């Protein structure tokens, strides 16, 4: 069976149209089945991660990484080899504690416990992009723009690649496939405003 983006698959532009033409609520249902299959296949690794203290979840309603990505724009982890090292306890983790101080070779946590570390990875969470806009452009703009990521009442992605709520201000992001597909749609919206087909 050919994969959409496999070497023997359709041209990339056709694959993008096929991929992006599935409404988000239907994509979520499809992803629930796919995620369930993946979790069964990865069961030994997932059990090892859980035993090592790594927080594992299957996404919103068990729909996996893709829907979590569209829901939050973050909050997921893609394994590139570290998961087995964590499961084997070759990489140790500690979650759920606030960092009080960073020292030369350790981290001091809120409960005054100290964790020696060769490397420190800051995975401190994700905020809505409007909060980044607030830091860069100020409160007035941030209060006008809509929430970004997640789904509106029609199942469409909120605030991204469409009118933001502030004239002339657009949010654009996502992985390469999303950017490749939605950049044209965003450009068409801006062009329509510029030539007077629609109002800003």
From TrEMBL:
The organism encoding this protein is Stereocaulon virgatum
Q: What is the protein name stated in its UniProt record?
A: Flavin-containing monooxygenase
Q: Which Gene3D superfamilies match?
A: FAD/NAD(P)-binding domain
Q: Which domain of life is it from?
A: Eukaryota
UniProt xrefs under InterPro entries = FAD/NAD-bd_sf (IPR036188)
């Amino acid at each position: 069976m050919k994969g959409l983006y496999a070497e023997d698959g359709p041209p990339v532009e056709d694959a993008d149209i096929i991929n992006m033409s599935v409404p988000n609520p239907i994509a979520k249902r499809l992803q629930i089945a796919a995620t369930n299959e993946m979790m069964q296949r990865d069961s030994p690794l997932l059990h090892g991660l859980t035993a090592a203290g790594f927080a594992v979840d299957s996404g919103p309603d068990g729909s996996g990484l893709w829907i979590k990505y569209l829901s939050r724009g973050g909050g997921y982890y893609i394994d590139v080899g570290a998961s087995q090292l964590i499961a084997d306890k070759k990489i140790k983790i500690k979650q759920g504690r606030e960092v009080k101080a960073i020292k030369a070779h350790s981290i001091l946590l809120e409960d005054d416990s100290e964790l020696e570390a060769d490397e420190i990875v800051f995975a401190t969470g994700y905020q809505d992009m409007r909060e980044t806009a607030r830091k860069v452009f100020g409160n007035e703009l941030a209060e006008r723009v809509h929430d970004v990521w997640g789904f509106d009442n029609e199942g469409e992605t909120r605030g991204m690649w469409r009118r933001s709520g502030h004239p002339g201000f657009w949010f654009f992001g996502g992985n390469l496939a999303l950017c490749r597909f939605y950049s044209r749609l965003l450009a068409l919206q801006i062009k329509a405003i510029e030539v007077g087909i629609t109002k800003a």
